Amino acid sequence: MLLEFSVGNFLSFREKKTLNLVASSISDYKGTNTIASERHTLLKGAVIYGANASGKSNFIRAMSTMKRIVMLSFSQPSTQAIGVTPFLLNTETEQSPSYFEVLFEVDGIRYRYGFEVTNKEVVGEWLYESKRNIEKFLFLREKDGIEVSPSFKEAENLESKTRNNALFLSVIDQFNGATAKKIMNWFYNFITISGLTHENYELVTFKILEKENTAKAKTLRNFYDQLDLGFDGLSIGKEKFNPNRISGNTPEHLVRLLIKDLEGTLRFKIKTLHKKYNKENKEVGYVEFDMRNQESAGTNKVFNISGPIFDVLQKGGVLVIDELDSSLHPLMTLAITRLFNSEKENSKNAQLIFTTHDTNLFSYGKYRRDQIYFVEKDRYGASDLYSLVEYREEDGTKIRKDRSFEKDYIQGRYGAVPYIGDISKIISEWQKK
């Protein structure tokens, strides 16, 4: 389970900023929105608001970037760039390393793992564990070398096998270190997806639905029925790649490349079933629609991301979604978010973190004040991240739980909203030209 994620000097985040999922002392929705672990009371997720270009997506990219570096570090060659972009709007930070750190809990043990990297090398790396209250280091890497704790036997004599652009953690994992393997498995279940380019995730959904008689497939189909997506069933199948189905607008060189790569392969096909009626409006059968081409963007999105959602709900882990509400009706967004605050649907204590512009969730999402985060840029182009429970009124008092959060946010009370000038003046000046 995730306790904290921190990032610094990455994209629009100049200073270190932290998303904290350790529950504060407030009593809001304690029975449904929190997880009681052996050592902490944790939140089942967080919702992040902010104006366009405020840095919301950059925060999600920081999470996906950390995971990518961890998972791919060992397999990349010594000449491979690590792939990070520091805060470029300041001369002090543009040549400095980017900072990533997670604090998480596995099997009752708390781990703190992080690293500092430039595009060329790992500048620093650290791993700490806490079985009780005292945190002890397992290894600490700095410019001049790697120090391994005498008690961390699985990492012994591996320092010299670590490249400048590779993480020491990934090296330990390759040599079957038990703790490293446990941490790598946690990162494997730290899933980040985009709500805008979600087509790549439909394979996860297809693989669940393909096994029709499993509990997971039945749960997923029931979820579609509850959302009333406009179809009466699904038909799942596979077919051989057919070059005749390539769009006529596709450039010829790309067509040749696709045929070369995909010829003879199987592709999955999803059809939605719609009831068909005669002139007396009596049901006479079903008509099949192609999911990709004949259903709405919202229906396709729900289908594509539902697989990762229910996969995380069934197994546990952390799911991070950028722009969750894009193309979705507010009630659909609400239905998805409520799954994670349900004891029945979320028995594995999965956590959901997402960005959105859907202000309805302030009123109907039933989120605690420590689950609501805002991202806002300052005058120097740097993003700030803060929660509603941290926000203070001008007199220093906290925001009360009985306030109208949605109304306050729209009015700019908590910041993180776009500043829009006099639109009528802009229009009138444009019309004069």
Plain-language structure description:
This protein has 433 residues and is an alpha+beta fold. It folds into two domains: 2-189 and 316-410, 3-Layer(aba) Sandwich (Rossmann fold), CATH 3.40.50; 199-303, no CATH class. The protein has 13 helices and 18 strands. It has helices at residues 30-33, 56-72, 168-174, 178-188, 202-210, 215-227, 252-262, 291-294, 297-315, 330-340, 360-364, 405-410, 423-432, and strands at residues 2-8, 17-20, 34-36, 41-43, 45-50, 98-106, 109-117, 122-130, 136-142, 145-148, 190-194, 233-240, 266-277, 283-290, 318-322, 351-355, 372-377, 383-387. A seven-stranded antiparallel sheet has the order 2-1-6-7-8-9-10, with helices on one face. A six-stranded mixed sheet has the order 11-15-16-5-17-18, sandwiched between helices. A hairpin with a 5-residue loop joins strand 8 and strand 9. The chain is globular and about 80 Å long. The mean pLDDT is 87.
Topology overview:
Layout: E1 2-8, E2 17-20, H1 30-33, E3 34-36, E4 41-43, E5 45-50, H2 56-72, E6 98-106, E7 109-117, E8 122-130, E9 136-142, E10 145-148, H3 168-174, H4 178-188, E11 190-194, H5 202-210, H6 215-227, E12 233-240, H7 252-262, E13 266-277, E14 283-290, H8 291-294, H9 297-315, E15 318-322, H10 330-340, E16 351-355, H11 360-364, E17 372-377, E18 383-387, H12 405-410, H13 423-432
Parallel strand pairs: 5-16, 5-17, 11-15, 15-16
Antiparallel strand pairs: 1-2, 1-6, 3-4, 6-7, 7-8, 8-9, 9-10, 12-13, 13-14, 17-18
